[in-house]
Specification:
Porin; eight-stranded antiparallel beta barrel; single chain; elongated; 10 strands; 1 helix; 59% strand; 179 residues; mainly beta
């Protein structure tokens, strides 16, 4: 719900501006949302700041997801992006980490168990930031992460299974408002 609300607000800021050229901005902060395109990303709200030269961005994000009645995931993460053009736009490389708290109410005919665990995802990311004069910014990105931990009941059943290697590749799109 919050993601939808945020997207509507951000789109509303773009209508009066009608500017589609890359802006040379001195804006230092951003707020936005990750719009999941292919599975792997959890929609999130994030806040970021740029260093003085706008060559680096530090972003903090949080999220909550309840994909099934018996499963809930909440967590957050940190990402450090380094821009190749030494401005807050264009191509970047990033390192980050996400930490998820997972609660699974596992029920079978013979077993009832509340499984709670923490999953850690170190990641690398590559993307491109388009910034417009009105503050809107679009950021497509490709992320490779590695899962540390598992969600497993005592009888061996697993939830949120990953490939055998624990690596995951995902494509995402951030929509941000710079201020």
């Amino acid at each position: 719900m919050w993601n939808t609300f945020l997207v509507i607000i951000l789109i509303g800021f773009t209508i009066p501006g009608n500017s589609f050229a890359q802006a040379d901005s001195t804006k230092k902060h951003l707020i936005g949302s990750d719009l999941s395109i292919i599975s792997g990303n959890i929609p999130s709200i994030h806040y970021g700041i740029f260093n003085k030269r706008q060559s680096r961005e530090f972003t903090l994000r949080g999220y909550f997801l309840k994909p099934e009645k018996d499963l809930s995931v909440y967590g957050g993460g940190l990402t450090l992006r380094h821009y190749m053009r030494k401005t807050a736009k264009g191509m970047y490389l990033a390192l980050g980490i996400d930490i998820n708290r997972v609660k699974w109410n596992y029920r079978t005919a013979t077993l009832t168990e509340d499984v709670q665990t923490v999953l850690i995802y170190p990641k690398i990311e590559h993307g491109y930031r388009w910034s417009f004069e009105n503050g809107l910014s679009l950021v497509p990105n490709l992320t490779l992460d590695y899962q540390v931990g598992e969600v497993k009941a005592r009888d061996g059943n697993q939830k949120l299974e990953r490939p055998e290697s624990n690596y995951s590749l995902s494509f995402g799109m951030d929509i941000d408002f710079l201020f």
